[in-house]
Amino acid sequence: QSALTQPPSASGSPGQSVTISCTGTSSDVGDYNLVSWYQQHPGKAPKLMIYEVSKRPSGVPDRFSGSKSGNTASLTVSGLQAEDEADYYCSSYAGSNSVIFGGGTKLTVL
Amino acid sequence: EVQLVESGGGWVQPGGSLRLSCAPSGFTFNTYAMHWVRQAPGKGLEFVSSISSNGVTTYYANSVKGRFTISRDNSKNILYLQMGSLRAEDMSVYYCVRDIGGLRWSFAFDYWGQGTLVTVSS
Question: How many helices (H) and strands (E) does chain B have?
């Protein structure tokens, strides 16, 4: 299984919206609604932001939203804030009880 | 408050073994599937292994299959990862994580430990 494909970087100004893509195949992203997104600040453990494509865990701001179309999932951050600057990773169930991650996207708030 | 505290990391020579432990608190441990996820220095996340809430079902990434063993002791509230035949490419921070799905597998990880560093080097 290859890693999911994410753009290495993304950026936006405070208040703007930014969307990060996560492309897989028909055997992972396209086949299961088990896509998750994680935020990781430097030196910290990842934090779950979105699960099962579009669900938000308790405590995650509604500025964060997820969606999926075919083999590509997306994370949209609306109303960008300085504290949103971090690395973002997507993951998907890939069958045979395995999980694959994307390579990560560094989000910069300009 | 949910907490996951890993221990057992350290330096080991190639071919050596190490056992990681994870002590959970703040939730009913035996009602959640658990996983190990690792992250090499400066790199992305990699799934390592999963175990069902009752410890009966386990899964492994191909990269560790046959070398690592995940287990749990629900009576003592502890999760383990026994690592053997360690290679340089196993060098990573290892995170103990909880599956948000509880008794059912969701493969989304809602709580993470602080991580424990495993260094494999001669």
Answer: 0, 11
The pLDDT tens digits for A47-102 are 999 999 999 999 999 999 999 999 999 999 999 999 999 999 999 999 888 899 99
Tally C-beta pairs within 8 A across A and B. 58
Quick check: A49 and A109 in contact, CB under 8 A?
Answer: no
Residue closest to B10 by CA, chosen among B97, B90, B66, B98: B90
Q: What angle do CA A29, B93, A63 make, to 5 degrees?
A: 45
d(CA A84, CA A99): 25
Amino acid at B33: A
CB contact under 8 A, B59 and A97: yes
Taking CB atoms and an 8 Å limit, are B47 and A97 in contact across chains? no
* Contact assignment for B108 to A47 by CB distance below 8 Å: no
Q: How many CB atoms lie within 10 A of CB B78?
A: 15
Bridge partners (DSSP) listed for residue A14: none
